[in-house]
Amino acid sequence: MKHITIIGTIALLCHTFAISSAEAQNSSGIAVDGGCDITSAYIWRGIHTAGPSLQPTMSLSAGNFSVSAWGSVDFASTDYKEMDLTLAYEAGPVTLSLTDLYWTGHADDRYFSVGASSPHRIEAGIVWEPSPKVPLIVSWYTILFGAADVNAKGKRAYASYFELACPFEVGTVEMKAGVGMVPWNAAATYASGNRGFYVQNVYVSVGKSWNIPDMQTFTFGLFTQLIWNPALEDVNFVEGISLCM
């Protein structure tokens, strides 16, 4: 019953927000979007981060620029939460981004802590999609600042993550397969221990979404992900519901 109530509340909020979002876009050229995923587990780049989670998102875009907020909270135990803020610019097939990553689990989890014990990490990213005719997405992310980002020797790691992904469709079902790698030691960020280069994230995802009649641009989706982490010898099978506008 608790889960049904949560889903119903989110659907009502999304419906209301979808109407105001469409009106705002039509009148000003600024698009506002939002939504929420409900997932059986939160897996971040191959790492099991939390159990069943609520993951809300909202974004504002104007031209090629966008600003977005994404979060995750473990609603089973409330032991974990995350809050990411991203500024992005899309230039043709290339998207550049700068993200403030914040998650709990550090000695000092205060959100507004900016000193030597700050839990924040600032990450730069670049995503390249060569062509609509080429089913390939190339991504690279590197943490530029953040006291919490250290390697196995306790020095700044500049933790990086490189991924090759292939999106495709089978009938009306959207699929994606990918492999993600950590190029050098980033013990604190990627739980890599004393490893250097290694494969951390091998996955296959399946998803399908439906437009809800008489609810503007509101969509309801289902997705499943099978995720292997060869470095940590782990595997996760995740399923979820996506509500968005």
What can you tell me about this protein's structure?
This protein has about 240 residues and is mainly β. The protein has one domain (about 1-245): Porin (Beta Barrel), CATH 2.40.160.40. The protein has two helices and 14 strands, in the order αβββββββββββαβββ. The strands form two sheets. The protein has a twelve-stranded antiparallel barrel. A two-stranded antiparallel sheet has the order 2-3. Strand 8 (about 120-130) and strand 9 (about 135-145) form a beta hairpin. The protein is globular and about 55 Å long. The model is unreliable at about 1-25 (pLDDT under 50).
Short description:
With about 240 residues, the chain is mainly beta. The protein contains two helices and 14 strands.
- Total strand segments: 14
CATH class term: Mainly Beta
Round the Cα radius of gyration to an integer and report it: 19 Å
Sheet with the most strands? 12 strands, antiparallel, barrel
- The CATH architecture classification is Beta Barrel
Average pLDDT metric: 88
Low-pLDDT stretches? 1-24
Spatially, the strands of the biggest sheet line up as 1-4-5-6-7-8-9-10-11-12-13-14
For the record, the count of structural domains works out to 1
CATH 4th-level superfamily: monomeric porin ompg
Please tell me what the overall shape is.
globular
Return the string of H and E elements: HEEEEEEEEEEEHEEE
Distance between the termini: 25 Å
The percent of residues in helical segments reads 10-25%
Multimeric state of these chains? single chain
Strand content: over 45%
Structural class designation: mainly beta
Q: Tally the helices: what do you get?
A: 2
Query: Any idea of the CATH topology?
Result: Porin
